[in-house]
Amino acid sequence: MNQIVLTGMVLSAAPVGEYDKRVVLLTKEHGKISAFAKGARRPNSPLIGAVNPFSFGEFVMYEGRTSYTIQSANISNYFAELREDITGAYYGFYFLEFANYYTRERNDERDMLKLLYQTLKAISNPHIPNRLVRYIFELKAVSINGEGPQVFQCVGCGSQEKNMEFSAKKGGLVCRKCGQDVIDKIVLDNSTLYSMQYIESSKIEKLYTFTVSEKVLNQLGKIMEHYCAIYIDKKFKSLEILETLL
Prior knowledge:
246 residues; alpha+beta; 5-stranded mixed beta barrel; 3-stranded antiparallel beta sheet; elongated
């Protein structure tokens, strides 16, 4: 077995046997991986706090033929503040579950890891509405995965004419000609369109640097709810719980 050091975040952890845990991590080097943390449920284990969801840092592990085994961890951020706010915690669990669904082993997931880290920092920031953090995360995540809506030109003909409408089913903006028979098209507020363009085109580090009006926030929410319902074939348990808290 080879000893390696991976930088990443714990997405989920589940008990295995009497004292062990099976951990899913999103790593910079190997994408999403599953690893065993032997003895992590023992009271005196050095891994007891390191292999919980949200933990971000360096993980020293052995890479076997079919599995990884965590030996030690140096955690730089536990995101402990999320554990003090049940609503914030379930927003966080939703982001973890979303990332778990979208990422793959041996795939380059550095952008998704970076987005996840910045999003968990943002959800702890009282100056940014939690709902806005959620919609930014959702839109950027589907864009990273190559499934984001086209918000710069018509999805049908490539036109960049003004006053185009948005269709979730078509996958983005539609011009007057291409949108004649589209039944779900809506008129976007200019600020909503600009926000979506900013989210899709900006660097991840710059995402959570703006706020929007309640009108724009509500429109973003309706768009992302509709868009995710069409293009994401999964019901997230954490989101269902979160929506009962709001």
